[in-house]
Specification:
four-stranded antiparallel beta sheet; 10 strands; globular; binds adenosine-5'-diphosphate; ABC transporter ATP-binding protein/permease
């Protein structure tokens, strides 16, 4: 069910500079934890470590009690869905992009996921609908439309863990609100790690962790952190 634990995690990209200086936190199953902090604090590094892109210097990361360094990277990735800041889509059809990660899904499943993510809204006006090519060889989608495709992909993949890495940061305020409500829908009942710099996007987080220069300097709820300021 996707419980995440970081236990005294230390990490550096190069030996001269430690990026994460022994951080510990957990995201209980189905709960939502947000990590906020200035640029360069190490927030995205946390998500890369969870994907097993790099090995830790010391400490442990577990998913459901299992040390992720002891399982294959493919199985770790299969458990995680990510909506990044700027979704890069494949130069292929919208259907392919939604289906990516669950190639066995039926057309009906793809359509259902697309409807939940409100992708259907902009596809239905396109002559080729789901078969519309996107990217360099096709239609250029707006930032919000690309995020909807990424959300539809995640709904279809239905991973126990969801990472939202500045998923609305590149959007204008109006689009941000629309995408945020779609994200709220996907993160319900799912173990969610949100990386953000705008407090407005993490109002619903069960816990907020403030990271500065690789160290957790504060933790609490949205309300308790605001009251403390
Ligand atoms: P945040 O997401 O909080 O902005 P990051 O986790 O992206 O921070 O980066 C933390 C620090 O690690 C930054 O100083 C960044 O320059 C450095 N860093 C990020 N990726 C690499 C890399 N591949 N090699 C070396 N240093 C990196
Ligand atoms: P696997 O094939 O092992 O299941 P994927 O390559 O499908 O793993 O990756 C799982 C999800 O993570 C996909 O939605 C993919 O878009 C996303 N993903 C993979 N690598 C990155 C990355 N470096 N940055 C952001 N998202 C990524």
């Amino acid at each position: 069910d996707g419980a995440i634990r970081f236990e005294n995690v230390r990490f550096n990209y190069d030996p001269a500079r430690e990026i994460l200086k022994g951080i510990s936190f957990e995201v209980p199953p189905g709960k939502s934890v947000a990590i906020v902090g200035p640029s360069g604090a190490g927030k995205s590094t946390i998500s890369r470590l969870l994907f097993r892109f790099y090995d830790l210097t010391s400490g442990r990361i577990t998913i459901d009690g299992q040390d992720i360094s002891e399982v294959t990277q493919a199985s770790v990735r299969a458990a995680i869905g990510i909506v990044p800041q700027d979704t890069v889509l494949f130069n292929d059809t919208i259907a392919y992009n939604v289906r990516y990660g669950r190639m066995d899904a039926t057309d009906a499943d793809v359509r259902r996921a697309a409807e939940l993510a409100q992708v259907a809204g902009f596809i239905d006006v396109l002559p080729e609908g789901f078969d519309t090519m996107v990217g360099e060889r096709g239609l250029k989608l707006s930032g919000g439309e690309k995020q909807r495709v990424a959300i539809a992909r995640t709904i279809l993949k239905a991973p126990p863990i969801l990472i939202l890495d500045e998923a609305t940061s590149a959007l204008d305020t109006h689009t941000e609100q629309e995408i945020q409500s779609a994200l709220d829908l996907v993160s319900q009942e799912r173990t969610t790690l949100t990386i953000a710099h705008r407090l407005s996007t993490i109002i619903n987080a069960d816990e907020i962790i403030v990271l500065k220069a690789g160290t957790i300097v504060e933790r609490g709820t949205h309300k308790s952190l605001l009251d403390a300021d």
